[in-house]
Design a protein that fits this description.
8-stranded parallel β-barrel, about 40% helix, alpha/beta
Length: about 300
């Protein structure tokens, strides 16, 4: 059997684009990463491309939040502006846009809220509007991460109706209600103002529900399906890769990155070797693509080996 080979061509780099800043600002809870102003995103895009990383995943960050997440679908919103800048600076780079409302709602939840209840159908309508705005800005793939029921089918229909039939969908299909998202929520400013997300994300004990969610999203038109987080759910990645004839993405999430980074900074482990081992394990489990905060660092290491 051929050994699993780690390569930058399997990585997707997350990028956080913030409003109200003029230069990149380091992120305390994600060392090595930054809030980027939209008009500087070409810099990081070109770096990723030069290292052989084929794609980036764009997250918008704003203080202009409201009940309907209007900045999420504003043509002048942070994600839309960044997408356009990246496509101009690095046209061959594949741009994935995170399609969610949590960073834009006053509640911090992934959908529209009424009386502290997340409304599924109303949320799906807004998510479809967000996806169309991202495709219009130039995104190659929209990436619904909200976990509302029926959102992939609604997004596919909306994209097709607006002339964006070539835009793909990478769905966060098996997204579990994990403790591993803390640093991300700090960076994206999207911690829930009340309650948690267990009503719409998957119970960590339910492998079957994760696989059923993947099957549903593929039936609704997803082109790529994702398992998130990666490390605690390698079994789900493995079963999904053997069961479904579709590309499988795995998100090596912020908490996983932070644990390795913190231990490396303290000299408890060799961070570079640990990162390579973890990413290799995710590929070995069956992932075709890995969204990882270690993308740049590991790509540089692999490039130095050539």
């Amino acid at each position: 059997m051929t050994p699993t080979s780690l390569a930058p061509s399997r990585f997707i780099l997350p990028i956080f684009v913030a409003e109200g800043i003029s230069s990149e600002e380091p992120l305390a809870t994600l060392p090595g990463h930054f809030h980027w102003p939209a008009d500087r995103c070409g810099v990081i895009a070109k770096e990723a491309q030069s290292l052989g990383i084929p794609g980036v995943l764009v997250f918008g960050v704003t203080d202009r939040k409201d009940e309907r997440a209007t900045r999420a679908f504003d043509p002048d919103g942070p994600a839309q502006r960044a997408i356009a800048e990246i496509k101009s600076a690095a046209p061959e780079l594949v741009v994935f846009a995170d399609t969610c409302l949590c960073g834009y709602t006053a509640s911090g939840h992934c959908g529209i809220v009424h009386d502290e209840t997340v409304l599924n159908d109303e949320s799906v309508e807004v998510l479809a509007e967000v996806a169309v705005s991202q495709a219009d800005a130039g995104a190659d793939f929209v990436s619904p991460s909200d976990m509302m029921d029926g959102r992939v089918g609604a997004i596919r229909a909306a994209l097709d109706a607006q002339g964006f039939s070539r835009a793909g969908i990478m769905s966060y299909s098996a997204k579990f209600a994990s403790a591993m998202y803390g640093p991300f929520r700090d960076v994206a400013g999207c911690a829930p103002a009340f309650g948690d997300r267990k009503s719409y994300q998957i119970d960590p004990s339910s492998r079957r529900q994760g696989l059923a969610s993947i099957e549903r999203d593929l039936a609704e038109g997803a082109d790529i399906v994702m398992v998130k987080p990666a490390l605690p759910y390698l079994d789900v990645i493995t079963e999904a890769s053997s069961r479904f004839d579709a590309p499988i993405a795995a998100y090596n999430v912020s908490g996983e990155y932070a644990m390795v980074k913190a231990a490396g900074e303290r000299g408890w482990i060799d961070e570079s070797k640990a990162a390579e081992e973890i990413l290799t394990a995710i590929l070995r489990a069956g992932a075709d693509l890995i969204i990882t905060y270690h993308a740049l660092e590991v790509a540089r290491i692999l490039q130095s080996h050539d």
